[in-house]
């Protein structure tokens, strides 16, 4: 069963050395300067067609250097050179509700147990997490109920815990970079090391992503995800890019309200998107040049 038919394959024909784990959203150093925000009016044609399959691109460090890629300023990632692997997803879907309704979906950490992605190595559907819980702090014992939209205000820092199917437990940190009725930006990184057997695959803050969710019209939303492994991640994280892509698709479907463990998109989804790899990589380049500011990072809100 090949999940590649679900997405626009825009990655280049090179030998990728990706990773086998989670994808969510980014971070940076304490005390950083003001950060350019992606929360400006965005032309809908930047995204794939409404309810089309999302476009997904994958780049290894070598290709990022060849492209002279600079991370969008709002990610607060210091340099493209520091990215071992980059996975980008862009999609557009219909939703007749408010931004807060979608934030409730994002905050439903416990629902990760019901999200499934296609594992090409196992040739089977696998859960994103066997167990997951929102936390009151970085202490994995500080379990709490799922986050609500009211918990995700600009500047808020949240934590959650997950256990995978190999009983590996990880704590993640979420930082809300922006929140308005029309735009939401969320960043995430691992707080605790992620190990496989006796080896540390990801040291703290080496598995990072940024999610941008924007209202494009009264009933359509655009999603832009940047997911990366930092160069500080182990080489043992290499050669698993399909896991990243398939998990990204699963999270996108969950957000869009689509059943996650289906072989093909629903009938109302159109043919594959025509978004190019260059467009994905430079999606926010023009916004960075003239964008508004998210706000300064302070020592009281570290990453």
Description:
- The protein is 14% helix and 30% strand.
- By secondary structure, the protein is of the alpha+beta class.
- It has one domain: START domain (Alpha-D-Glucose-1,6-Bisphosphate, Chain A, domain 4).
- It has a ten-stranded mixed sheet. A two-stranded antiparallel ribbon has the order 4-5. It has a two-stranded antiparallel sheet with strand order 11-12.
- A hairpin with a 4-residue loop joins strand 4 and strand 5 (124-127).
- 48% of the residues are buried.
Describe the secondary structure blueprint for this structure:
Layout: E1 8-9, E2 55-60, H1 61-66, E3 83-94, H2 99-107, E4 116-119, E5 124-127, E6 131-135, E7 143-144, E8 157-163, E9 169-180, E10 183-190, E11 194-196, E12 199-202, E13 207-217, E14 220-230, H3 241-256, H4 277-281, H5 285-290
Parallel strand pairs: 1-2
Antiparallel strand pairs: 2-3, 3-14, 4-5, 6-7, 6-8, 8-9, 9-10, 10-13, 11-12, 13-14
